[in-house]
Amino acid sequence: MLLRRITQHVKEQNWFAVGLDMAVVIIGIFVGLQLSDLNENRKNAIKGQGYLDRIADELEQDIRFFGGVIQMNERTLENAQFLLDTVDNEDLVREDPTRFITSLAFTGASMVVNVSDNTIEEIKFSGNLELIKDEELRNEIVDYYDFIEISQTFSHLRQEAEMEYQRRIAGVLAPEHMEFNRDPNYSEVDALLVYERFLAKPEFIEWIPIVMSQKNGTIGFSRQSQRNAEELLAKIRGEELPAEEETGEEEPAN
Hints:
There is one protein chain. The protein has 254 residues and is an all-alpha fold. The protein has one domain. 73% of the residues lie in helices and 0% in strands. The protein has helices at residues 2-11, 15-86, 90-95, 97-106, 118-126, 135-152, 155-168, 188-199, 202-205, 208-237. It is rod-shaped, with a radius of gyration of 32 Å.
């Protein structure tokens, strides 16, 4: 209809009307483009917020998992120290035979966290990182996952220490002592037999502090990662950062 009007005005040489019609067309195109841009920006904002919500959910999971890892590894570290204490104190074995045997069985293993990074990997793959408009927040998200990735490159040190632990403990425990999915209850006689073999392997005993050092590194990394996750989660949700717990000791580097 508008095209017919313009054609008619040209035939009539009504140039004012032609100009007015063209102005209407141009303004219509401009407004249409603006509305299209606004709609696209709105969709991108919704998508960017969706990414942030998903990252926040994954960070909550990471925080819980890091807490469990810290707790489990601290307990294992205490049991490793218990093993060293028994070297000069047989009474500790008699008092808690089950702890002695289970400590030997599980000190050479660590619990670690597989961080939930599905969302950040999806964002990187799709090239949508810029949809998170806050540049500072965007950089902090990338830094969080980079810290995890860089720190995990040193996990081979822990793995090597634990593999050597398993090699050196050979002959000290019976196969049934190494079963994870059982509720053990060992007698004093059981423990003293194992204790005798334990003392006969000084090369194994001297390796326990090395495993402890690697566990300290894992605990320190987990604490720092958990704190990083808490800070990032608070920033994403616009909440106040939780107070940092006092550990009473200096955190080792991983």
